[in-house]
Structures are given as structure tokens and as C-alpha cells.
Amino acid sequence: MLNISKIQTLAQEYSPQELFAALVWQRRFNEFNGEEVIQDLSQNAHLWASFLFTKPIFAPDEHGLSFGGLVDTLLAMANYRPMPESSIIHFVAYPGDTLYILTENQDTIVSQLLDFGKKWRADSVDITDGNNEEYGLRLQRHLRMRLEDCLEGESLWQQRDGVVIAYWWD
User: Fold this and answer.
1) Which of 5, 9, 29, 94 is most buried (most C-beta within 10 Å)?
2) Is residue 27 part of a domain?
3) With 0-12 CB in 10 A as exposed, 13-18 as middle and 19+ as buried, what is 65?
4) What is this structure's pTM?
5) How far apart are CA 120 and CA 118, in angstroms?
């Protein structure tokens, strides 16, 4: 059951980015430490425009892996109940295992974010700029079009090129 007054308060006081940061903060599995990731992102906010923590998004997706990840997320969110630490029953936490960061396409920024992949002990770090041959030509064109001039600069007329960096933990 949704607590509407709590949701209204959260929606008025927190941005979507802060809500996703809270999901990341809660997660700890294998080599992943959500609190460490959020502290680093907070201290280096100049390096990124936004981030999303979710199941991996595969393209092309011949085997429905993206849809399977979506279903896993929906099931975990449907079944999750907060439990005290002393409880022997623990529900599956938000099942995100992939962090996507939208950032400016500048070598110095991208290299610093790639270094975080090592610090955070990510199993895989990939950069998507719309030129990945694994994606079909149509998707490449679409991604390139969306990422070119996607970030607003200091003035309304200044646009910046973006890339997406994906960090994955097994």
C-alpha cells in the first residue's frame, strides 16, 4: 500500500536523482558498496550530469534480457518489505547491479570516471557514445543523435556532447 502523504513529502523535498541515490546507497553485494559510490559521486558532482542504477539494458536484445531485468526489478519492488536486522526473513532489495552515468564527452572527465570503475571494483566498465558497432546502424544513429548536443551549458545556446558510462557488478 502506498502512503500518499509520505510520497507527496518525498516528491516535494527530493529530486529523482536523490531518490535514485538513496537506492544506490542501500545496496551492498559482492564487490559493490553503494554508500562508497554515492559519496564519490557527491564529492565529484562536476564530473556527471545524471545517473541511473538499474538492471543492465542490453541492445540488441534478442533473448529478452532487458525485459527479464525489468521483470526482476518489478518483482523485487512488489515483494520488498522493510525488516529489522534481527529478522531471519529478508526480502530481495532493489536489484540494480548496473550504474549508468551521463557525462560530458571530454577525455579528462571520462578518464576520471573510468578510474572510479577501478576504485569501485566494477566487473565491467563500458562507454557508449553512439558509435558502438554491436548496436544496429539504426540504433547507432539514434544514440548519436540523442547524445550530440544533449547537455545544456552555461547559456541556453551552449550545448555539450554527452556519453554514457556503464559500470556493472556481477
Assistant:
1) 94
2) yes
3) middle
4) 0.76
5) 5
SS3 category, 153 = coil
Residue 121 belongs to what domain range?
Answer: 18-60+95-168
Name the β-bridge partners of 130. none
Distance of alpha carbon 25 from its chain centroid, rounded?
A: 12
Handedness of CA 140, 146, 149, 154 (dihedral sign): negative
* Domain-embedded: residue 86: no
b/e string for 69-98 if b means 16 or more Cβ within 10 A?
beeebeebeeeeeeeeeeeeeeeeebbbbb
Q: Show the CA angle centred on residue 41, arms to residues 38 and 46, nearest 5°.
A: 160
**Each residue of 74-93: pLDDT tens digit?**
666 666 666 667 776 666 67
Please tell me the distance from the alpha carbon of residue 24 to that of residue 36, in angstroms, as a whole number: 10
Strand arrangement of the beta sheet that strand 124-128 belongs to:
50-54, 98-104, 162-168, 124-128
- The dihedral sign for the CA sequence 81, 120, 44, 146: negative
